[in-house]
Write a structure and sequence with these properties.
Elements lengths: L19 H11 L12 E5 L15 E3 L1 E4 L6 E7 L8 E2 L7 E3 L7 E10 L6 E2 L3 E5 L7 E4 L2 E4 L22 E4 L2 E4 L5 H8 L32 H14 L6 E7 L8 E6 L11 H9 L50 E7 L22 E4 L15 E4 L8 E2 L3 E2 L1
Parallel strand pairs: 16-19
Antiparallel strand pairs: 1-3, 2-6, 4-5, 4-7, 7-8, 7-9, 10-13, 11-12, 13-20, 14-15, 16-17, 17-18
The protein binds calcium ion.
Calcium ion (CA) binds next to loops.
Length: about 400
């Protein structure tokens, strides 16, 4: 069991009992053991978990309930069972779980759990409820916000202070890029989230212990962004989280070096964009989400003197990362888009957006040497945290100021 608490949420849908278990009772009666006029007690379930309970978040508590009536005024007895598969024909009786309501444990590891209730009464045929399928996943940990579709002009005007020529607007379509809506992580992936998915022993972060690397006063170590991850590490994290949540992984990773463990310094990665799993933002998604409708140097405007309200950067970071979400968000509700750590994006780097794959949901060039990094970090100047600022590095490299955030369709 992990120390992290998983508190669980679900809905119970009452389902009237009707089915094969009644048939069993009728068969008993038809056999004439009790004679036609003498009725034996019959248990009828009036409320039970939906067959697929299924909606499980972290940090929410939950319980399962049944209710039954018994003819002849007999008293029903309840006994909850757990199982490792979706059947109520076998299972392990849960200690002390003998009332109508069963409180789902809050210390469950990630995974899928099956519970059902056995209902008995003196003289009656014992029956069993539906199996509740309880999935403990990360949906409540990786908090996502919806970024509505729209269009924007990608890049910066030539008049923007501190800009580089690789931010020039596209020439096609007057630089306008059209985007579909998507979910994006409200925060950068944190160290505790990384460890929950990849393993407690695998926190690669530079700011994870050590003199001068401590969290700032009042901040939680585990809620600082994970960093010192390669682009390949971030890609694999996306796949592993997708698998944990029964989503279809987006990426196929082959030729991984090393074959197991981290950091992954090289691999061949292809993407299935029709999959529903987690992925890194494309460069266009990142800038579109960061801008949140703005056309200014930062999502809040052009006034550098207020950047510290929105970003951890060289002027206020005290040379370290900070707990995510402490600075003001942009208009989409996204935090730390400017500063804290740079964020890996999907795209291969190209110096010109004109090469970056179409005017709608562009995926970037099909090949390259470096992968895109966006948003600036705790060590960077204000100019390098601008919405249009572009940086890149070899995907097998890693630094104490580069992390990532997630996107999902
Ligand atoms: Ca950032």
């Amino acid at each position: 069991m992990k120390t992290t608490k998983f508190i669980i949420f679900f809905t119970v849908i009452p389902i009237m009992f009707a089915g094969c278990m009644l048939w069993d009772v009728e068969e008993v009666r038809g056999n004439g053991r009790n004679g036609g006029d003498v009725s034996i007690p019959v248990i009828t379930i009036t409320t039970q978990p939906a067959a697929e309970t299924n909606v499980i978040f972290d940090n929410i508590t939950g319980s399962l309930s049944v209710a039954a009536s018994v003819s002849n005024d007999a008293i029903p007895n309840y006994r909850w069972y757990s199982n490792t598969s979706n059947t109520n024909t076998s299972g392990i009786a849960i200690e002390n779980a003998t009332s109508e309501t069963f409180t789902i444990p809050t210390n469950l590891d990630l995974g899928t759990y099956y519970y059902f209730c056995e209902i008995s009464a003196f003289g009656a045929v014992t029956i069993r409820s539906n199996v509740a399928v309880v999935r403990v996943n990360h949906t409540g940990v990786i908090e996502m916000v919806w970024v509505p579709g729209g269009s924007f002009r990608m890049g910066s005007p030539s008049t923007e202070p501190g800009r580089y020529s690789n931010e020039d607007y596209r020439t096609a379509n007057d630089g306008i890029v059209t985007m579909s809506g998507f979910y994006m992580g409200k925060y950068q992936v944190t160290q505790e989230q990384w460890m929950e998915v990849i393993g407690e022993e695998n926190n690669p972060s530079y700011f994870h212990g050590g003199s001068g690397r401590e969290p700032a006063s009042g901040e939680e170590q585990g809620k600082r962004p994970v960093e010192n991850v390669t682009w390949f590490d971030a890609i694999e994290f996306c796949n592993k989280l997708s698998q944990l949540e029964d989503l279809t992984p987006v990426y196929t990773i082959t030729g991984r070096t090393p074959a197991t463990g981290y950091p992954i310094t090289s691999a061949t990665v292809t993407a299935n964009w029709s999959a529903n799993g987690y992925r890194l933002p494309t460069e266009a998604q990142w800038e579109y989400a960061c801008r949140a409708g703005s056309t200014t140097a930062w999502h809040f405007g052009n006034t550098q003197t207020v950047l510290g309200n929105y970003a951890w950067y060289m002027n206020n970071s005290n040379s370290r990362t900070h707990q995510v979400g402490l600075k003001l968000s942009n208009d989409f509700g996204l935090h730390d888009m400017h500063g804290n750590v740079w964020e890996w994006c999907w795209d291969w780097y190209t110096a010109s957006y004109n090469n970056a794959g179409g005017n709608a949901n562009p995926l970037g060039p099909t090949a390259g040497t470096n992968r895109l990094i966006r948003g600036g970090s705790w060590i960077n100047s204000a100019e390098n945290t601008r919405s249009a600022n572009r940086f890149s590095d070899y995907p097998g490299s890693r630094y104490g100021n580069v992390g990532f955030r997630l996107v999902r369709p």
